[in-house]
Amino acid sequence: MEPILQIRNLEKSYPGVRALDGVSLCMNRGEVHALVGENGAGKSTLIKILAGAVEPDEGDIIIEGKRERLANPLESLEKGIAVTFQDLGLFPNLSVAENIAIRREIQEHRFRLNWRSINKLAQDSLKELGADIDPGQQLGYLSLANQQLVAIARAIVHDAKVLVLDEPTASLSKEDVVSVFKAINVLKGRGMSVLFVSHKLDEVFEIADRITVLRDGRYVGTYDKKGITESQLISHMVGRNVHYARYDAKAPGEPLLSVAGLSKRGNFKDVSFSLHKGEVLGITGLVGSGRTELAQALFGCSQPDEGEIYLDGRAVSIASTSQAVKMGIGYVPENRKIEGLALDKTLEENETITIVDKIKNSLGLVDENKRRQIAEHWIDKLRITPPYPHMPIGNFSGGNQQKAVIAKWLACELRILIIDEPTHGIDIGAKSEIHRLLRRLAETGLGIIVISSEIPEILAISDRILIMRRGRIVSELAGNCYSEGDILDRAILGSGSTCDVEAGESSW
Question: Parallel, antiparallel, or unpaired: how do β-strands 66-68 and 58-63 relate?
Answer without folding.
Answer: antiparallel
